[in-house]
Amino acid sequence: MRLDGAASWKCLRIVSLTGTWSAWLMVVVVLGGCGAEPHAEVDTGPRVASADHHMHIQSAEAALNLDRAREAVEPPPEGETLDPSPTFGAADAIAALDAAGLEGGVLLSNAYMFAMPDVEVTDELAKVLAENDYVAEQAALFPERLVGLCSVNPLADYALDEIERCGQDSRLTGLKLHLANSDVDLRNDEHVEVLAEVFRRLGELRMPVLIHMRTRNPEYGPVDVNIFIERVLSQAPELPIQIAHMAGWGGYDAATDAALAAFVEAFDQGTLARERFSFGLGAVVFQPEAADNDQRAERVRQSNQNLASRLRELGLDLVVYATDWPAWPPGSEPRTAIERNLELIRSALPLSEEELERVLANVGVLFDGR
Ligand SMILES: [Zn+2]
């Protein structure tokens, strides 16, 4: 599938959050109990963003699993229980895209969460397969607008078999990998070898990847990016790759900035081919006004400024609009979350209007098909 990037939009607003590897879990807490609303009318208006390049859907089983993971990672205070996470399907994603006037969406499977080391899961493999099938079915409901990615914990013993199986499913375009959630450490030789094997196979299958690269290792930074480039990406030199969260995990701290700078350097030196990369803006821009004191607000402003400078160095043509829907911005109704995020980026990311329009119109490498 290929998107032309013509779209329209309407209204909008704010947000904030703290960046940790479990950020996605935390922000989902805010959404517990929210259901999908009826389909929105699409406004006509100025062209804004063409696609949301990072959206999660989940079956009932995955929603239950997410709740178990939330309890394991961020236990609720004594005596309190968490609101159950809702299911999300393609119709919910389309309603949110329509409300923001966007044309396309990248739907991600949460199957890797069944293999998260923090949760005990019975019949793990069966659940992983069923979740990836769910995403394939959902993406196929809107084949002109949605791209579906299966997912797997790359360290699981069934990982290559499941990648193979997804690769044969014409309803799926590629693979989502989440290194922190899967507890992959790029400083661990065995992990790097497994990941290299996965990428070698993905290259053979011509299966594009969206990867959340930041690991749980507290030292994460340029060293990890360079290991990834030299030992993993080198195994599939032509594979289209979308790097999630600007090589971080939400928010834009010094470690993420240094990691992104390592990519800039690799492009400048010609180690990597720019054409096969997209970098997603999901959950990296915070609203300074949402900080609880002036000092923090100033730090957020500085982070947004650093991000804008680094994006220019990277090249704005590689930057794609992404949210991490439905978990971002926190507190948003799923149907309006994408348009609220547009407003957040417009108000807080210090790019010129022209630069921003260019970014929002970009269609990423995952839409090139395979
Ligand atoms: Zn995500």
Q: Short description, anyone?
A:
It is built from 11 helices and 8 strands.
Q: How does this model look, in words?
A:
With 370 residues, this protein is of the alpha/beta class. The chain has a single domain (23-368), classed as Metal-dependent hydrolases (TIM Barrel, Alpha-Beta Barrel). It is 39% helix and 9% strand. It is built from eleven helices and eight strands. It has helices spanning 23-31, 60-73, 90-100, 124-139, 159-167, 189-205, 222-232, 254-268, 294-314, 337-348, 353-361, and strands at residues 51-56, 104-108, 146-151, 174-178, 209-212, 241-243, 277-280, 319-320. The protein has an eight-stranded parallel sheet. Helix 9 (294-314) links the parallel strand 7 (277-280) and strand 8. Helix 8 (254-268) packs parallel to helix 9. The chain is globular and about 50 Å long. Residues 4-48 have low confidence and may be disordered. The structure holds zinc ion. Zinc ion (ZN) is lined by residues 24, 54, 56, 324.
